[in-house]
Amino acid sequence: MVRYYFGGSEFINCSVPLAFEGRYFIIEPGTPDSVVSVVLDYKGQPIFEVLKNEPVENPLSIVSKTPPGIVTVAERETGRFLYKVRPGSETSIVFGTISGEEVSASVTDRQIRVGGITIENCLFNGVGAGVVVDKNGGVGIGTPIPEVLRQWFKRE
Known about the structure:
mainly beta
């Protein structure tokens, strides 16, 4: 059994605190800053948009990184802003919505904040994501991970 402690919560057998539009944000402790990867299921295979804080070329999105280390992701076909990630001791993520508004999130060693929700001292047992943000900016607690990715996580 693998246990991760971050955002003030415990994640057993998974390190996915956030999900957005079928994308799963894996946050790992690092020195001095956290390490962020973003993966999604594409045609039955895991596709990374961000791997250990670095942009990854892929068929679904355009990914870029600024000199300060902010990774920005947009839809390849439309150019619509999807999200940006700034890894750090407080990892910050901004999600784009269909209406063009943005939803901010942060993960610190003590809590996970998304929109108006703050999570701390929670237990997430099994493979699932702690907080989910939908394309309209709605925020919910707990979501399953697609079976393909769940099986892939178990192998890794």
